[in-house]
Amino acid sequence: MVADLETIFKQWLGEHKGLLYRVVRAYCNTAADQDDLFQEICLQLWLSIPRFEGKAKVSTWIYRVALNTALVWNRGEKNRRKHRDRFITIAPPQQTADSQPSQEIIDRLYEAVRKLPKVDTSVVLMHLDGLGYDEMAQILGISESNVGVKLNRAKKQLAQLLGGLIDDV
Amino acid sequence: MTFNELQKNYWQKDAAASKLTIDSDMLIREVKRNKEAFESTIFWRDFREVAVSIFMAGVFLYEAFASKDNIWVAGSLVVLAIACLFVAAFFIVDRRLQRKNEIRHTDPLLACIESSLAQVTHQIWLLKNVFWWYLLPFIAGISLYVLIDSWQAFKVLPAKYVLAGCLLGMLFVTLVFGGVYWLNQYTVRKNLIPRKDELKGMLKNITNDTKAM
Fold first, then answer.
1. Are B188 and B127 in contact (CB under 8 A)?
2. Torsion of CA B82, B83, B85, B91, to 10 degrees
3. What is the CA radius of gyration of chain B?
4. Nearest CA to A119 among A149, A76, A154?
5. How confident is the model over B41-67, as pLDDT tens digits?
6. How far apart are alpha carbons B115 and B121 in whole angstroms?
7. ipTM, 2 decimals?
8. Which chain B residues have a beta carbon less than 8 Å from that of A122?
């Protein structure tokens, strides 16, 4: 069973590392906080594996665990971690004339997303990742029509925070 | 730029997310260590709270038995033992009742926030009322013991020494238990109330649109 847990965990990490990275970056600014939150999400994911029955998509399940953890994560609590190494490394981006402005826009976007209320951050994050209203409703525990209302409000707020970068909201 | 362009051309093509390398073996080791550390913290917290109270009840009962010739002292020690058992029982019952509020990270976000809020609200209630369920039983037991001991000391010692000893004992109890009470109220003000407000804000945010529909 332990071996199975490890196999499933590695598979989930491998397939959904981008999702975890985006959640962590959307909720935390500093590398230390990102690493703490990443480890907390991984712990909760590990604990959630025996409860996964396959009724929901794996990505929906991981999203739910990651967002719940990010939302109720209390960085003020005493940190029980001893390991201070980073588990995530990002290959340095190849600096080209084209990539620099796009990286700047992505950084600006993350900065704006972090300024939203925490629940709105999760809604915008899921929308940017291309999740449908039904999946978002499952994760949030509210109706699809409410997801629409919430998303519109969050997008307007995000557009304001991005200061004219988006012109169709 | 439109929102869709931002989404498709920038967010979903963010190279950083695809260039991630995760040391999964090291991470699994750390996750297991974190899990053990978490379980150990919970175990030692419960052990500290319950086992120490039961142990102290045993000590007081033993002392009461040893002082059975002096019925008043033995009686006050029995009261102290009962106070310890009451506190242990309170911890056990409270933990069992609060299991329904345990945070499940696999629940929908709304349910997860609600259970977090219920948990914090209960912690605030516990600490705000720490005097009644934790301090008072001990204060009553210790005060009774000190008073009975002092009353009996009048027979063998000058009154001024007995009164001074009694007052010093009561002062010590007041300082120690006052300190415990202050520390608990400080935690409520400094950590728990801001946390409760934050969770209430999140709950309001997620339920506001529901009510608006």
1. yes
2. 160
3. 27
4. A154
5. 878 887 888 998 999 999 999 999 998
6. 10
7. 0.80
8. 109
Q: Give me the CATH code for the A1-75+85-90 domain, please.
A: 1.10.1740.10
H or E stretch including A87?
A: none
The closest of A162, A144, A156 to A120, measured between CA atoms, is A156
Q: In which region does residue A130 sit, left (phi positive, over 0), alpha (psi from -120 to 50) or beta (all else)?
A: left
> Each residue of B109-148: pLDDT tens digit?
999 999 889 989 999 999 999 999 999 998 988 888 888 8
Work out the angle between the directed axes of helices B109-128 and A133-140 (0-180°, nearest 10).
20
Quote the pTM value.
Answer: 0.81
- Tokens (6 digits) for A116: 């939203």
* Tokens linked to A132: 């449908």
User: How far is it, in rounded angstroms, from Cα B109 to Cα B115?
Assistant: 10
Smallest Cα distance from A149 to chain B, Å: 7
Rounded distance, CA B60 to CA B34, Å? 38
Enumerate the domain spans of chain A.
1-75+85-90, 93-164
CATH class (in words) of the domain with range A93-164: mainly alpha
Q: What are the sequence ranges of the domains in chain B?
A: 25-92, 107-207
- Stretch among A106-115, B14-23, B164-173 having the lowest mean pLDDT: B14-23
Question: What is the mean predicted confidence (pLDDT) over A142-150?
Answer: 92
Report the chain B residue with the minimal C-alpha distance to residue A64: B106
Outline where DSSP puts E strands in chain B. Answer: 20-22
Given this chain, do its domains A1-75+85-90 and A93-164 carry the same CATH topology?
no
Chain B residues with CB-CB distance to A18 below 8 A = 17-18, 20
CA distance B135 to B178: 9
